[in-house]
Design a protein that fits this description.
single chain, 260 residues, alpha/beta, globular
């Protein structure tokens, strides 16, 4: 009997994987075909990956802001946000930190960060105007306007409008899992400028121990050493966060630290 392929060795872009998955999950065939049709249309009409993924978010957010950020239910949205928050507090986040959240979405974790941090110390950016409108709804619902959070729409991850040596913590959950390597490289090339010496940047990614690949242009799978080596080339020290793997979330996490 053939041993099952470990999750981190699966190539989800391969025809073999797709056929096996379809056979086991026939209810997923129609949604996947719909995603494929959307993908083909957006590839033709989008000038670059940011425009492509902004259109994906517009489509997803129109159905459900929670689902657009990867949480099919409100309960799941709350649970994943709390998981991110608890982990970061356990691993060094303090109320007086100035925090930049890249891909803040509709503030799944962000509203907890805003509530915890000192007033004015949270800055969230996202490429999607639709999801940032949903973020405003979250602020109203949680009554956090007095904490003066910043929410800003961006076209790229050059961070050129942000001050140098300002943020002690940068956080990006489920951003690099949807990004080609060129976008990740752009972010790592620029995030060091806005980090204070000794500041850190935590990001999650979809990990593979086999061939790096992507599914449509929405989900990207990288080897750990690809991202740690890229970070080190930009002057960071990089560490794979082993204990994040123990939590019920499908992505992996790396922390890169700015030299002191």
């Amino acid at each position: 009997m053939t041993e099952p392929v470990p999750p981190t060795r699966r190539n989800r872009a391969s025809l073999t994987y797709k056929l096996r998955y379809a056979a086991k999950n026939p209810d997923k065939i129609r949604p996947y075909l719909a995603r494929t049709a959307r993908d083909l249309k957006l590839r033709v009409t989008s000038r670059d990956h940011v425009a492509y993924y902004r259109a994906v978010m517009r489509s997803d957010a129109a159905r459900s802001p929670e689902a657009a950020v990867g949480s099919p239910t409100r309960e799941r949205w709350l649970r994943l946000g709390k998981m991110q928050f608890d982990y970061l507090v356990k691993h060094g986040l303090k109320p007086d930190d100035r925090m930049l959240e890249i891909g803040c979405g509709n503030l799944r974790a962000g509203w907890r960060f805003i509530d915890y941090l000192d007033t004015g110390n949270y800055y969230g950016i996202d490429i999607s105007p639709d999801i940032l409108l949903a973020a405003q709804d979250t602020l109203v619902r949680e009554e956090l306007g007095d904490k003066l959070p910043h929410l800003t729409l961006v076209n790229d991850l050059t961070l050129r409008f942000l001050p140098s040596d300002h943020f002690s913590v940068v956080h990006a959950h489920s951003v690099f899992s949807h990004s080609p390597l060129s976008v990740i490289d752009e972010c790592l090339a620029n995030v060091g400028r806005v980090l204070v010496p000794g500041g850190f940047f935590d990001f999650t990614f979809d990990r593979t121990e086999g061939a790096e690949h992507h599914v449509l242009r929405e989900d990207f799978y990288y080897r750990t050493e690809t991202l740690t080596s890229l970070a080190e080339r930009h002057g960071f020290t990089a560490r794979f966060m082993d204990d994040w793997e123990e939590l019920p979330h499908g992505q992996s996490k790396i922390r890169v630290t700015n030299p002191a």
